[in-house]
Design a protein that fits this description.
single chain, 356 residues, alpha/beta, Rossmann fold, 2 domains, five-stranded parallel β-sheet, globular
C-alpha cells in the first residue's frame, strides 16, 4: 500500500518582512492593483460597459503570494474565473486580455505570447485534470517547472477535482493545486460544503501531500507556495495548498451577498484585510511608510487606467461571437449570424433616425 506523501514543513517564522524590499513592493503593488481593478470593473459592469465580473476583494494575498512564488518562465497556470486580477506579475498585456474577456471580446480568450497561462475556466474543477495533464507532459519531456491550478472550495466537491488529483498522485507529476477556501461556495457556507476536517485533508485520499495556511498573509502564502513548488519540482509528486481567506464582496456582479453573509462575520474578516495587514507588517519592520504607500497607490491608478484604455480601444462587435466556433459555419449558424446582423442594422437605423 502506498503511503501518503509527506508534506514539507512550511515555517512562516523564517519570513523577514524587512528583507527583499523590491519583492515586497511588487507584492503590495499586485494586491493594490487587484483591489482597485475589482472596484473599477464592478462599476463598469453597473454602467453596462462590461459583462458579469467576479471581484477578488479580500482574497488578493492568496493569489499574489502564489503567483510571485512561481517561476513564470517555466511554470504553467491553470486558473478559474476569479483570480486573474491578482496575476499582475504576468504583465499589462495579460491584464488587458482579462478586461477584454469580461467585455465579451473574442481576444479575451487569447493569452499573450510567452505567458504560460490557460484561458479562464468557468466549469468548476475542470482545470485540475488540465493542469495534471500539463504537469505530466512536463515530467515526460523532462522539462523544468510545474503546473499550478487554482480552484475554489466548492470545486473540491466536483468529480474532476478527485479524478485530476488521483491521476497526478499516481503519476507523481509536478502539480500544485491551490484551494482558495473563501468561506463560501456562492451562497453555501463551508459547514454545508464538506464534512472533511479541512479541504487540505481531501488530498490524503489521493496520496498527495498538503498544507493549510493563512491565505490573508501574503508573506505566509509566498513561503508556503515556494515550499510546495520545491516539493513538486524535486520529483516528490503533487501538493495541495489550502489557503484560508474570505470573500469580502459578492461572488459575482450577479450576486447579492447581503442576503446570506452574516454582517458580524464579514466585519470580523475585514479586520484581517490582507492589504492592511501587509502594510502594517512592513511599516512595523521599518520597510514601509505612508508616503511610499500613497505613491504606489497613485502609480497603480495610472497603470490601471492605461490597461483599461487599451482594452476599451478594442471595439466589441456582437457578430464576432459566431467566429472560431467550428472550422466551418453550419447552415444554422450562418442564418443566426445574418439575423443578428439585420437586427443590429435595424437598431442602428433607428438610433440615427432619433428613435422614430
Amino acid at each position: 500500500m502506498t503511503e501518503v506523501a509527506r508534506a514539507p514543513e512550511v515555517d512562516a517564522g523564517r519570513i523577514d518582512a524587512a528583507a527583499d524590499r523590491d519583492l515586497h513592493r511588487d507584492l503590495m503593488e499586485d494586491m493594490l492593483l487587484a483591489r482597485r481593478a475589482s472596484e473599477r470593473l464592478w462599476n463598469l459592469q453597473r454602467q453596462g460597459r462590461i459583462t458579469t465580473v467576479a471581484p477578488l476583494t479580500g482574497q488578493e494575498a492568496a493569489i499574489v503570494g502564489v503567483v510571485r512564488a512561481l517561476d513564470l518562465e517555466h511554470d504553467w497556470l491553470a486558473p478559474y474565473y476569479r483570480e486573474q486580477l491578482g496575476m499582475a506579475a504576468l504583465g499589462d498585456e495579460f491584464l488587458e486580455q482579462v478586461v477584454l474577456y469580461w467585455r465579451g471580446h473574442p481576444d479575451g480568450g487569447r493569452v499573450p505570447d510567452g505567458v504560460r497561462c490557460l484561458p479562464p475556466q468557468i466549469s468548476l474543477a475542470s482545470q485540475v485534470p488540465q493542469a495534471a495533464g500539463l504537469a505530466w507532459g512536463l515530467k515526460l519531456r523532462g522539462e523544468p517547472g510545474i503546473a499550478c491550478a487554482f480552484i475554489g472550495d466548492g470545486a473540491t466537491s466536483e468529480g474532476d477535482f478527485y479524478e485530476g488529483l488521483n491521476l497526478a498522485g499516481v503519476q507523481r507529476v509536478p502539480l500544485l493545486v491551490v484551494v482558495l477556501n473563501n468561506g463560501w461556495a456562492i451562497s453555501t457556507p463551508t459547514i454545508h460544503q464538506t464534512a472533511a476536517s479541512t479541504f487540505a485533508a481531501k488530498a490524503e485520499a489521493a496520496g498527495v501531500a498538503s498544507a493549510r495556511v493563512d491565505g490573508n498573509d501574503v508573506l505566509e502564502v509566498l513561503e508556503a507556495a515556494r515550499v510546495a513548488r520545491a516539493h513538486a519540482v524535486d520529483g516528490n509528486g503533487p501538493m495541495l495548498l489550502e489557503l484560508v481567506t474570505y470573500r469580502m464582496g459578492a461572488h459575482t456582479s450577479a450576486d447579492d451577498p447581503t442576503r446570506y453573509v452574516p454582517a458580524t462575520e464579514l466585519a470580523a474578516w475585514k479586520e484581517r484585510d490582507p492589504i492592511d495587514r501587509f502594510r502594517a507588517r512592513l511599516t512595523a519592520a521599518g520597510a514601509w511608510n505612508d508616503a511610499a504607500h500613497d505613491a504606489l497607490v497613485d502609480a497603480v491608478e495610472t497603470r490601471l487606467e492605461r490597461v483599461l484604455d487599451a482594452a476599451f480601444a478594442h471595439e466589441v462587435d456582437p457578430r464576432d461571437g459566431f467566429d472560431h466556433v467550428t472550422a466551418r459555419d453550419t447552415t444554422r449558424r450562418t442564418r443566426q449570424r445574418e439575423e443578428l446582423a439585420a437586427r443590429i442594422d435595424r437598431e442602428s437605423d433607428r438610433d440615427e433616425g432619433g428613435g422614430a
